[in-house]
Automatic annotation (TrEMBL):
Protein name (record): Bifunctional chorismate mutase/prephenate dehydratase
Chorismate mutase domain ranges (all copies): 1-91
NCBIfam families: CM_P2, PRK11898.1
Organism: Parasutterella excrementihominis YIT 11859
Site positions (Essential for prephenate dehydratase activity): 259
């Protein structure tokens, strides 16, 4: 038996399965359209992060292989994105131009079928969502190497928006130029966080190269594409978009480098199917007296509420006062979280709740095959 004769029945089987998949996908899309009509009638949003997290958790829980959960999550995000598109066009603002890690995070969270709105700054992302030009926004909040993104933290304090979700992506930085060499290169551009994430490599390999900041890695790549004396640090996608050649790959100082992004919306998210695995984000200040921070945070320990993060930013009043940013595990709808927050509020000089929202943890625990989401 020839190889083609051996493959023919298997290929015919795949063709049959593909036909059935197309039928089922369209059947799912019809149901999604009906859901969209109901949502439109009662004024519900098209994108429901808590519902999508629940769908992904169920899909992973039913997976018996050989496909890893990571692959199924990516496939189902695109399926949900396509079905969402039948309900309404979804516009999402991100830190642009094209080719940034923010754009990658947007596609990972929402799917490739959304209408991306590249923005020149983090402030512009906030502004587009606040004004209604975009339904949602996505902004970087922290990096595993460089820590918090200060501009995002500052705008979270000012905004009326809510955090409705989060996602994280691995960060791989590349040095790129128009020529593909470093000959004649006098300066390198990148986002401040990216420069910090590559500082050891830069010190070892190009210590004399002037380092300048850009609003985003995509903007850095654009600048390098316009001047043969400039280099940029950005992702591989940016090199393709702006016609640059990669001189060195994976120049980040840590191989486990990841950035976490927040999804911003005008309305808070509903509790997920696993509210104990949701996250609640808060900004608070405490009275200026000894022990006030300890006393304010004590209710979380008393009620067994896990704090997942604690950062501070100057209040910018010239009086050495600070705002504290914290994430706690659990949804505000949970009784113990609600009780802890009531007592916590009493010990604060000010308190702003940015919302409770599903995290990747909501469906990651269903993965028993070790795939890295």
């Amino acid at each position: 038996m020839s190889v083609n004769e051996e493959l023919l029945p298997l290929r015919n089987k795949i063709d049959g399965l593909d036909s059935e998949l197309v039928r089922l996908l369209n059947e799912r899309a019809e149901v999604a359209k009906e859901i969209g009509e109901i949502k439109a009638r009662v004024g519900l949003p098209v994108y429901r992060p808590e519902r999508e997290a629940e769908v992904l958790k169920k899909i992973c829980g039913k997976n018996e292989g050989p496909l890893p959960n990571e692959s199924l999550v990516a496939i189902w995000r695109e399926v949900m994105c396509a079905c969402r598109g039948l309900e309404s066009e979804l516009k999402v603002a991100y830190l642009g131009p094209r080719g940034t890690f923010s754009e990658q995070a947007m596609i990972r969270q929402f799917g490739s079928g959304v209408v991306g709105m590249p923005s020149g700054s983090i402030e512009e992302v906030f502004r587009k969502v606040e004004s209604g030009d975009a339904a949602y926004g996505i902004v970087p909040i922290e990096n595993s190497t460089e820590g918090a993104v200060n501009r995002t933290m500052d705008y979270l304090l000012k905004t009326s928006l809510f955090i409705v979700g989060e996602c994280s992506i691995p960060i791989q930085h590349n040095l790129m130029t128009r020529s593909g060499t470093m000959e004649g290169i006098t300066r390198v551009y990148s986002h401040p966080q990216s420069l910090g994430q590559c500082v050891q490599w830069l010190n070892r390999n190009v210590p004399s190269l002037e380092r300048l900041t850009a609003e985003s890695n995509g903007e850095a790549a654009r600048l390098a594409s316009e001047n043969p004396a400039y280099a940029a640090i950005a992702g591989e996608v940016a090199a393709k978009i702006f016609g640059l050649q990669i001189v060195a790959t994976n120049i980040q100082d840590s191989n486990t480098n990841r950035t976490r992004f927040l999804i911003l919306g005008r309305e808070p998210a509903e509790p997920s199917a696993n509210p104990q695995e949701d996250k609640t984000s808060l900004i608070f200040s405490v009275p200026h007296r000894a022990g006030s921070l300890y006393q304010a945070l004590k209710p979380f320990d008393d009620f067994g509420v896990s704090m997942m993060r604690l950062d501070s930013r100057p209040a910018k009043r010239g009086t050495w006062e600070y705002f504290f940013y914290t994430d706690i595990e659990g949804n505000m709808s949970e009784p113990k979280i609600r009780e802890a927050l009531e007592i916590f509020r009493e010990g604060c000089a000010s308190l702003k709740c940015l919302g409770s929202y599903p995290t990747e943890k909501n469906f990651r625990r269903a993965d028993t095959k070790g795939s890295n989401l």
